[in-house]
């Protein structure tokens, strides 16, 4: 079995990490490290075609992300990180499943700046929270188009002061359909590239 297949097997059924216990996390982190050791893209920030696109989260240790599932009557849906290399922008989009017609959306827009072959500094700039129905939300790509066109979203669409939110991310593995990142708070992220989210 390939190292990639071993990682996918380790994260299977863990619901992005929500259902992972400490033993699961140890197993997953070990599989991640073994896959990182075989990284075919030694300079991921130079591989713009591979990096660019819409990525769906498969697994994370981030309590901030996993905490989205802790609210009564709400469940975490799909979570995307959409990278637009040419604009040096990244969009984090979390779909929240709730009562019918009350499905929510939590999104953060940021810019990034490469500081090494694999590390980017991330500066969060804008947060958008609301109902998918009110936003006319269909896909991450269409939503990002709306953001980039200057559309304002209600009820919660506000700027984030750069001094408040910033961090860095190392891209430790990148191929045609998988990306692994490690953040400044010690969190790990495993994502798969989506090809079915085109406009």
Short recap of the structure:
The protein is of the alpha+beta class and 199 residues long.
Characteristics:
Lipocalin; globular; eight-stranded antiparallel β-barrel
Model description:
There is one protein chain. The protein has a single domain, classed as Lipocalin, CATH 2.40.128.280. Helices cover 23% and strands 38% of the residues. It has helices at 3-11, 22-36, 48-51, 63-66, 132-135, 140-148, and strands at 53-60, 75-84, 89-97, 104-114, 119-131, 156-159, 166-174, 178-183, 188-193. The radius of gyration is 17 Å and the shape is globular.
Shape, per Cα inertia axes: globular
Termini separation comes to 35 Å
The CATH architecture term is Beta Barrel
Uncertain segments of ≥5 residues (pLDDT<50)?
none
Show the helix and strand layout.
Blueprint: H1 3-11, H2 22-36, H3 48-51, E1 53-60, H4 63-66, E2 75-84, E3 89-97, E4 104-114, E5 119-131, H5 132-135, H6 140-148, E6 156-159, E7 166-174, E8 178-183, E9 188-193
Antiparallel strand pairs: 1-2, 1-9, 2-3, 3-4, 4-5, 5-6, 5-7, 7-8, 8-9
Helix pairs in contact: 1-2
């Amino acid at each position: 079995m390939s190292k990639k297949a071993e990682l996918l097997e380790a994260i299977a059924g863990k619901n992005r990490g929500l259902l992972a216990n400490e033993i699961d996390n140890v197993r997953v982190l070990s599989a991640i490290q073994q896959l990182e050791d075989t990284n075919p893209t030694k300079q991921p920030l130079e591989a713009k075609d591979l990096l660019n696109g819409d990525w769906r989260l498969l697994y994370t240790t981030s309590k901030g992300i996993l905490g989205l599932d802790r609210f009564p009557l709400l469940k975490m849906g799909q979570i995307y990180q959409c990278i637009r290399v040419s604009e040096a922008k990244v969009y984090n989009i979390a779909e929240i499943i709730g009562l019918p017609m009350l499905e929510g959306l939590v999104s953060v827009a940021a810019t990034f700046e490469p500081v090494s072959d694999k590390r980017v500094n991330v500066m969060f700039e804008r947060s958008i929270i609301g109902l998918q129905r009110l936003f006319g939300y269909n896909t991450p790509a269409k939503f990002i188009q709306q953001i980039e066109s200057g559309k304002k979203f209600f009820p919660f669409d506000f700027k984030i002061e750069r001094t408040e939110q910033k961090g860095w991310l190392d891209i430790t593995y990148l191929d045609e359909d998988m990306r692994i990142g490690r953040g400044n708070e010690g969190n790990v992220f495993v994502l798969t590239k989506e090809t079915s989210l085109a406009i």
